[in-house]
Design goal:
Length: 481
């Protein structure tokens, strides 16, 4: 165990222990808490202080030397360099938010890049659960069972282009639990939900097509559609789903080919479509002859009883998309789609041309997680933990005088701070906090006072105080009380 006052390193985190230890010393050097010429603890003492092996310490010190922060003196130990290059690089690909000046995210690509670089503990704008909310033992157990059973079969062939047969059978049961009746032959596995959406865009849409999208909506999807030459028709998203009057008018005027939407735990607002709105939306799809792509990437974080369009439609006009990276691990890029057979054939052909097949090994491991029921239990624990986090964050937001556009649900909340959130992004980033301004989720990049809040990464009261101070600097409304 670590001794003294050193906070413990996080075992099982996405960043290895050596990288965490290197970052810890690098930050102290940058902040002048360790001055040039200072001697670091010996390998043995450092290992004892931080509760790690000497091998981990050696690896960390090697990273610091490679970054130009340390020098090794023969038979004396490791010392902070007397002089360093002016452009010192962080000894890890995942730098802490205060490591060096960074630019606030102002488009979809910058948002993704910022999230890869971010420290989850200081990233209220993060789009995923932090690593310490996930269950590495669940993944390790699945891989061990795979190695002990039929690993050879899935590791020595391309696999089925449609996806692992056991995973598709398990997914058929998962969908049945949601009221979506799809047999395994109606399911196509993909390299994550984003890949599934990309296959749909490339297979079923053409440059110049008009497509209805939620506004606010997923910034990455706006970018992908625009890159493919698709005309976006933004539909305002409210507390109970899309504004169907606006959708109806847009559909009548532009004859859209499709509507891409999130019916449950919408990103970024956290809202879910109600049953009456779902029925009306499907009637409009029939009336105007467009198909619907239902992205249910956050479905495991929602109660199963919430209405899915695919369940009401029977996969007639609706193609259902989901994945596992949000609840298992972002490293396991396993997703899938369910569709009518006539749609699925063309989508499978595109997948074949795109990369032949997807990872049979990871798909079989996910199948084991589903078959054992452990994924369902893990998801239930996440829902309970998120419910507690939402209560805490609601109190923190209220204390600082902020309001929600609607009651938060799932992983996200849509917060109104009273000033243009794009103006807040850089000063907050300079203070060490990565946020996701509302303009990133606008199809027209319209500025506004809203921002996405991640319920799992926004529980530090220091963030809410920093947000309050930043808003006040821009003339925002005063705090309550």
């Amino acid at each position: 165990m670590p001794t003294g006052t050193h906070p413990p390193l996080q075992r099982g985190a996405s960043l290895p222990l050596a990288g965490q230890l290197a970052e810890r010393y690098a930050q102290r050097i940058r902040e002048r808490l360790l001055l040039p010429g200072a001697r670091l603890p010996s390998v043995r003492d450092c290992a004892r202080q931080h509760g790690v092996s000497p091998h981990t310490v050696v690896a960390a010190y090697d990273q610091l030397q490679a970054a130009g922060l340390l020098e090794a003196r023969r038979q004396r130990g490791f010392f902070v360099r007397e002089s360093r290059p002016a452009t010192t690089r962080t000894p890890s690909a995942r730098a802490p938010a205060t490591a060096m000046p960074r630019q606030a995210p102002m488009d979809a690509t910058a948002l993704i890049r910022g999230m890869f670089e971010a420290d989850a503990a200081r990233s209220p704008g993060l789009g995923t659960l932090p690593a310490d909310w996930l269950d590495p033992t669940l993944l390790q157990s699945a891989l061990r069972r795979l190695n002990a059973s039929d690993a050879l079969a899935v590791q020595t062939s391309y696999g089925d282009p449609s996806g692992d047969v056991r995973l598709r059978a398990a997914l058929s049961q998962r969908l049945h639990d949601l009221g979506i009746h799809a047999n395994p032959a109606q399911i196509l596995t993909t390299n994550g939900a984003t890949h599934a959406l990309d296959l749909i865009i490339r297979t079923q849409l053409q440059p110049g097509d008009a497509v209805l999208v939620d506004d606010p909506g997923w910034a990455i999807m706006f970018a992908r559609l625009t890159q493919a030459g698709i005309r976006l028709l933004p539909v305002p998203r409210g507390a109970h789903g899309p504004d169907l009057d606006v959708l109806n008018a847009l559909a009548a005027a532009h004859s859209p080919r499709a509507y891409l939407t999130v019916s449950v735990l919408h990103n970024p607002t956290g809202h879910s479509l109600n049953l009456a709105g779902a029925h009306k939306l499907l009637r409009l799809a029939d009336e105007h002859d467009f198909f619907i792509v239902e992205d249910d990437s956050y479905g495991f974080l929602a109660p199963e009883h919430l209405p899915r369009l695919a369940a009401l439609d029977g996969l007639r006009r609706v193609t259902y998309v989901s994945g596992f990276s949000k609840v298992l691990t972002p490293a396991w890029r396993v997703g899938y789609l369910a569709a009518a057979p006539e749609r699925l054939r063309a989508l499978t052909d595109t997948k074949l041309l795109d990369g032949l097949t997807s990872s049979a090994v990871l798909e079989r491991a996910v199948a084991l997680c589903l078959e054992q029921g452990r994924l369902r239990r893990h998801a239930q624990r996440l829902r309970e933990r998120l419910a507690t986090a939402r209560q805490r964050i609601a109190a923190l937001a209220t204390k600082q005088g902020f309001q929600w556009a609607a009651p938060p649900d799932g992983l996200f909340g849509w917060l109104d701070v009273g000033v243009d959130t794009e103006r807040l992004a850089q000063p907050l980033l300079d203070a060490g906090w990565l946020i996701a301004p509302g303009a990133l989720f606008s199809a027209t990049r319209t500025p506004g006072s809203l921002m996405r809040i991640n319920m799992a990464t926004s529980q530090d009261p220091a963030f809410w105080r920093a947000l309050r101070a930043a808003v006040d600097d821009f003339g925002g409304r005063p705090a309550a009380g």
